[in-house]
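Bug report (template v2)

What were you trying to do?
Predict the complex of my protein with magnesium ion.

What happened?
Run completed; filing so the output is reviewed.

Input:
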Amino acid sequence: MIIMDQHAIKKTSDLQSLIEETMHTALKEEQFQVYYQPKHDTQTGKLVGAEALIRWIHPELGFMSPGAFIPVFERTGFIAEADAYVWGKTCQNLRRWMDKGIPVVPISLNSSRIEFSDDQLYLSRRIEMTRQCNVPAQLMHIEVTESMFGKDMSEVQQILEECRDYGFMIELDDFGIGYSTLQTLGQLPLDVVKLDMSFVQQIDDPKKQRIMTGCVNLLKNMKLRIVAEGVETERQYQRVKELEIDAVQGYYYSRPLPAQEFEEYLMSVPVMTHEEGVARHVVRQEDVASYGDIDQCQFLLSHLMTGLLNMWVSSFVIDIRSGRSYEMSD
Ligand code: C2E
Ligand code: MG
Ligand code: MG
């Protein structure tokens, strides 16, 4: 028998009502803040990116984490407004940092299913905000989760392809839990996959570790960049390094930081430049040489920094500007 705590239910519904009643004002009054959590390259330790995470400094409820209000925003559709706000603020921050001569890294932004229901609105709003601040598209990464797709992913797939064609990068968040299917990996236009934190956090579970190794190998074969989320300890970091996962995000390096603190962070740690990032991705195609002509491969690599040509290796073409690889059909 389940005994429902009526008092707790009442409290929850009161909280949800309060969130709903105050969210529009909160946006107007700039009660939302965007925090940035650093992502570091596992081999060099350099900063390679960050994830934008929303926070709400509520006048009555105080500091609120997204877990408390995102479900309400999703249910009401307000998430589209909140995410557009996070995108706009991030463009403004990137512009400000670039104007100050601070080295910047790509920022990954979360998204929700509801935002993709109007096929043109999502992309046109993103393009407008990015252009207004004159921010290069490749600095903006869109995070999607598998739970967004349901049975028919063709609609979302189409929008994501248009986003990617414009130059935004696409990341698959929380991979390995819930709805993970190989179909998602095969069908979606992806650049990066973020392994769910449950993998590194269950480092002592041999079964989970075998699944993690299998996932990493599969993703590497698909030429996708891999990020491990939720890395907190040295032991977890070493495990991620052993698996040659590209980057880590987690308390091991840093918690999410308010914009001002992240600005200081950008100035205080070594940052991987875009060109270095691209080169790393190309060189990391370790099996590249064994596919094709090694001399040609090295010749092309030596021209990499000139940005004059796209690199062709075996059945993959690598776009120098973005570092993306495309599989070639015969
Ligand atoms: P997510 O996108 O998977 O973000 C990662 C979450 O893991 C963040 O929680 C982050 O603070 C937390 N985290 C990072 N490193 C560690 C670690 O080492 N250990 C542990 N235990 N946790 C770590 P946060 O900020 O509370 O966000 C929770 C979720 O809320 C996010 O999960 C995302 O799904 C959603 N969210 C956050 N901001 C936004 C937003 O602006 N828009 C949308 N649509 N969703 C958002
Ligand atoms: Mg995320
Ligand atoms: Mg995640």
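What did the reviewer find?
The pocket of C2E (ligand 1) is lined by residues 37, 53-54, 65-67, 70, 79, 83, 86, 110-112, 173-174, 197, 230-232, 249-251, 256 (CB under 6 Å). The longest helix spans residues 6-28.
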